[in-house]
């Protein structure tokens, strides 16, 4: 068994990983709070989908690979396979999305939260070990069974708590506290899974190391982070705008903008139905009498 480093850049990696987990959880919980206020199923599913990308893509997947940038095997190069890395992203988003769909509809209940937490937790475990399978070193990676089971238990418990928060918390303070707890659980699961791994080098293994360098991952991670933030923000703004100008059935609200096909056109909304401006009425002149 060779030496491995999990904190190559010191405290930077765990802090960056925690901040990504916190921000993804925070935005995801904001979206689930909006989903609970949605008036129809399609709008609720839309908010839950945005939350799945925020939590699965941001709080879990981005956190994982931000932490992995600090992983190093001094006696071997470390490379990442792009296909398996992207597969782990899809696994995280789908697992969180399915769990949110389970708890996001119907009455709130503990069995639904437990079922959704188990499903999402298994998906998060799949994300982690799929990402680890996409990592190539000059040798073999082995895992301690007890720590792997411990990481799985943490993932399922953390996912269950996250789903309970998703259908319960409101307000900035409570959402911030819930996001902080979720970020601790996600990071705890990751580093427990990493502690389970050991590397056993082989003399001829250097020729089998293929993929991209860890630091090169900064570019796709940055692009995916920016795309996720922009996509989540635009989707949320569009959904909020539609909810502002339409009622629960998706029809325009009665009011100042109801007569206009373009809700932002104040000029068109202020025009009468005939399309012509009313002519001003003549002001009668008062007669003056000479005293």
UniProtKB/TrEMBL annotation:
Transmembrane stretches, start-end: 15-35, 47-70, 82-101, 113-134, 146-166, 178-197, 217-237
Biased composition (Polar residues): 259-268
Pfam families: MHYT (PF03707)
Protein name per its UniProtKB record: MHYT domain-containing protein
Disordered, as annotated region: 246-291
Keywords on record: Membrane, Transmembrane, Transmembrane helix
Keyword Zinc: no
Domain of life: Bacteria
GO CC annotation, single: membrane
Organism placement in taxonomy: Bacteria, Bacillati, Actinomycetota, Actinomycetes, Micromonosporales
């Amino acid at each position: 068994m060779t030496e491995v480093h999990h904190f190559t850049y010191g405290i930077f990696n765990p802090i960056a990983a925690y901040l990504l987990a916190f921000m993804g959880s925070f935005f995801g919980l904001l979206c689930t709070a909006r989903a609970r206020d949605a008036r129809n199923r399609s709008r609720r599913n839309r908010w839950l989908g945005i939350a799945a990308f925020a939590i699965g893509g941001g709080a879990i997947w981005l956190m994982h690979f931000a932490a992995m940038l600090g992983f190093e095997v001094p006696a071997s190069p470390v490379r990442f396979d792009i296909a398996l890395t992207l597969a782990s992203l899809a696994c995280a988003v789908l697992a969180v999305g399915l769990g949110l769909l389970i708890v996001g509809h119907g009455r709130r209940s503990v069995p639904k939260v437990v079922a959704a937490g188990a499903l999402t937790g298994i998906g998060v475990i799949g994300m982690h070990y799929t990402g680890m399978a996409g990592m190539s070193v000059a040798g073999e990676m082995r895992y301690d069974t007890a720590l792997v089971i411990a990481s799985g238990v943490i993932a399922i418990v953390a996912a269950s708590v996250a789903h309970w928060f998703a259908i319960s918390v409101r307000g900035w303070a409570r959402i911030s506290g819930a996001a902080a707890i979720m970020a601790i659980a996600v990071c705890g699961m990751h580093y427990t899974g990493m502690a389970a791994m050991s590397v056993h080098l082989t003399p001829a293994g250097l020729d089998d190391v293929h993929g991209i360098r860890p630091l090169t991952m900064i570019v796709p991670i940055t692009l995916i982070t920016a795309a996720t933030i922009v996509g989540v923000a635009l989707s949320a703004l569009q959904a909020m705008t539609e909810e502002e100008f339409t009622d629960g059935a998706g029809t325009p609200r009665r009011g100042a903008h109801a007569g206009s096909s373009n809700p932002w056109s104040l000029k068109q909304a202020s025009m009468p139905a005939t399309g012509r401006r009313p002519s001003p009425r003549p002001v009668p002149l008062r007669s003056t009498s000479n005293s």
